[in-house]
Amino acid sequence: MIKGVGVDMCSILRLERAMQDRRFVDKVFTESELEYTSSRGGRTRHLASAFAAKEAFSKAGGWGLGRVGLKNVSLERKGGAPFLVLHGPALELMRSLGARNVHVSVTHEGDHAVAVVIIEE
């Protein structure tokens, strides 16, 4: 049974401007996200996808990013397929819904990155 669906769109240009402040980068992205994007072309578009995935997860549960915590949700990839790794409050909030699975899809085109998250039992 689906417990929640969230979607978010992130402006790549807006994120690029925000990333001029290293404190922002350190506050928002996990080491794993930064390592992945440093090995790829188009670093900012991949980080925009990660940011959108964090937002979409918080929307899927109806919690908001403040409760979830930006670094408690990490967009990872295995064989190219994206998935979310949850830590701390993000994992506990998902469990509080009686959910065990989270699915994510991300894309980017032009100046935007989009993520969709589905939380299910």
Structure, described:
- The protein has 121 residues and is an alpha+beta fold.
- The chain has 6 helices and 5 strands.
- The strands form 2 sheets. The chain has a 3-stranded antiparallel β-sheet with strand order 1-5-4. A two-stranded antiparallel ribbon has the order 2-3.
- Strand 4 and strand 5 form a beta hairpin.
- Helix 1 crosses helix 4 and helix 3 packs antiparallel against helix 4.
- The longest helix has 19 residues.
- The protein starts with a strand and ends with a strand.
Describe the secondary-structure layout.
Layout: E1 2-11, H1 12-18, H2 22-28, H3 31-38, H4 43-61, H5 65-68, E2 73-78, E3 81-86, H6 88-96, E4 101-109, E5 112-120
Antiparallel strand pairs: 1-5, 2-3, 4-5
Provide key terms for this protein:
121 residues; globular; Ribosomal Protein L22, Chain A; three-stranded antiparallel sheet; 6 helices
Q: Percent helix among the residues? A: 40-55%
Overall number of domains = 1
CATH topology: Ribosomal Protein L22, Chain A
The N- to C-terminal Cα distance equals: 6 Å
Radius of gyration: 13 Å
Tally of helical runs: 6
Q: What's the average pLDDT?
A: 95
In short:
With 121 residues, the protein is α+β, with helices and mostly antiparallel strands. The protein is built from 6 helices and 5 strands, in the order E-H-H-H-H-H-E-E-H-E-E.
